[in-house]
Amino acid sequence: MAPPIAVIPARFASSRFPGKPLALIGGHPMVEHVWRRCQESGAFSEVLVATDDTRIARAVEDFGGTVVLTSPDCASGTDRVAEVARARPDCGVWVNVQGDEPLVAPEALATLAGLFAEPTVQMATLVRPLSEEERASPQVVKAVLARSGDALYFSRADLPYVREGGVPLPRWAHLGLYGYRRDVLLTLAGLPPSPLERAECLEQLRALEAGIRIRCARVEWRSVAVDTPEDLARAEAAWRQSRFRRH
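The chain above was modelled as a monomer; its predicted structure follows.
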């Protein structure tokens, strides 16, 4: 199987953090950090940044990355990745790497890409152990898994529920990175938002409602996502303590 292509969707007009892909961490734009983590994984034949903004495109070209200009009408990162994949029938597997994860572990990316060595895997994502203090937080998405590793459900609620006297179960937090077979990606991007997706505001539920299986790999990496300007200082501090810091 040919290696997947990684796509980093990068949108300037974020409502909570305009210009987020260009926010500096250690003097370098956040999108560059994500691009470098993808390169360091060694898992991809290409790493592309998909954007509709010329400012982001110029920044990516300045650090030596490859840009694909996509439509400003893309409603989500999945739509942006699908637009790139639609023009590239030569690649059978695509990985959507969130542009707000500057410290994404290269090993986690390699694990995600490696799931597609199994021909039956349609779509894939990552989970990590859920800590006790995260159980009540709707900001941490929980994953319920089958024995096969396929997702049974994702929720912002504390799942699974264990009745008094019941046997405790492992609990998993979802990490928002996705891989797809090209045909599955294009099908998914063509579907309207589903009822469960709208209820929980979780795009991956659209796939489950459509009967698309999502294989989950268990990793130990914990996300340091940047959703707001306040998160940037936390990400900068984590980067300074990380192995990715440049000397």
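The mean pLDDT is 94.
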